[in-house]
Amino acid sequence: MTSLLNKPAAASPGHGAAFTPHLYSLKYSPDLGWHDGDLLPMDNLSLHPATLGLHYGQVIFEGMKAFRQQDGSVAVFRPWENARRFNRSAARLAMPSLPEQLYVDGVDRLVAADHAELSDHPDHSLYLRPLMFGTDANLMLRPSEEYLFLVMAFVAGGFFGDVVRPVSVLVSRDQARAMPGGTGDVKCAANYGPSFVAQRKAQEAGCQQVVWLDQAERRWVEEMGGMNLFFVRGSGAGAEVFTTPLTGTLLPGVTRDSLLRMAARLGYRVAERPVSVDQWRAGCEAGEITEVFACGTAAVVTPVGRVRDVDGDFTVGDGEMGPVTGALRRALVDLQHGRVPDVDGWLHRVA
Ligand SMILES: *Cc1c(COP(=O)(O)O)cnc(C)c1O
After folding, report:
1. Ligand 1: which of 62, 78, 213, 227 to mutate, judged by most atoms within 8 Å of the beta carbon?
2. Element holding 107 (H helix, E strand)
3. How many Cβ atoms from other residues are within 10 Å of residue 134's Cβ?
4. 155 three-state secondary structure
């Protein structure tokens, strides 16, 4: 439990480039099963140009964070949930399942080796990125036989910068992230590349993020970019916190699940209920929907201040972070850093 807090808490490391020195690697083949687990220096991979995953998108990933604890140790937040979700993604893409213990072991080895990269800066964390892809050098249109499981890590600052500021969102009317029967409820690489055009459109419209709608009726709010959405009705102790239901076309976030339970524990009424864009707008205009926020491993809890849509813009509350959003954000961050009792056993200590 030594704390190696020898890194200066310098400028924000941003999100996605400050990789740590190691890479965990584990191979799969039908004969040997999972084998050759090893911690390697972070370096380029050597891949055959016909690597199946590159061509046919047989690629899945996860996202988790490790946090420096109050006592100097390091803990990963709910890695077993991500291990289960990883296997649901694998099953959807006809990939072999990875025993949860092997998944968590790989994460543990990387975090144990590289956690000194994480300072005790309260806004920094170690973002962990497990990845699995088909490695057969064969272009037959069929699932790969061999696979590679990797875990890499980078030091992360705030996803939207280091100060929590409300984001503005554009409702995507002409593009879809997911469809019924598709892969919207799993974390496969193929869900993300096609979302970049809508994300760019949002930015061109002066917004930071996209809100996705259902594709059957094109009016039910699903989620935002790569984050789940929560809505607050009313205020004070009687406020209700609700999120959109898991219809099969949105990603079941671990943060979403955690906040549903934490909100109930904080005494709020909690629900999973559909909300259309029209209801969102009318609710804000009537002052019934008082706060909206997005949540995810990367974004933590980020308030949504303004919404752009074909019928014009509207503001959520006064456009700033509301009290319920603030309370939930604090509760989550305090728990992740070990500043409050971990009653559910969500912190997985590594070093
Ligand atoms: C990863 C992800 C989320 C958030 O999931 P967490 O487990 O909370 O990080 C939400 N939506 C999409 C589309 C995602 O890819």
Report:
1. 227
2. helix 100-114
3. 26
4. strand
Angle between helices 79-92 and 100-114 (to 10 degrees): 130
Where exactly does CATH 3.30.470.10 map onto the chain?
A: 22-157
* Owner of token pair 């990845």: 131
Specify the CATH number of the domain 22-157: 3.30.470.10
Low-confidence ranges of the chain (pLDDT < 70): 1-12, 14, 159-163
8-state DSSP, 185: T
pTM of the predicted structure, to 2 decimals: 0.94
Paired with 60 in beta bridges are 132, 188
Please tell me the distance from the alpha carbon of residue 270 to that of residue 261, in angstroms, as a whole number: 8
Please report, as a single letter, which amino acid is at residue 194: P
Quote the ligand 1 centre to 186 CA distance (angstroms): 9
Percent of the chain with pLDDT over 70: 94
Find the 256 Cα to ligand 1 centroid distance in Å.
8
* C-alpha of residue 187 to centroid of ligand 1, in Å: 8
DSSP summary character for residue 135: -
Distance CA 146, CA 34 (A): 10
For the 167-336 domain, the top CATH level (class) is: alpha beta
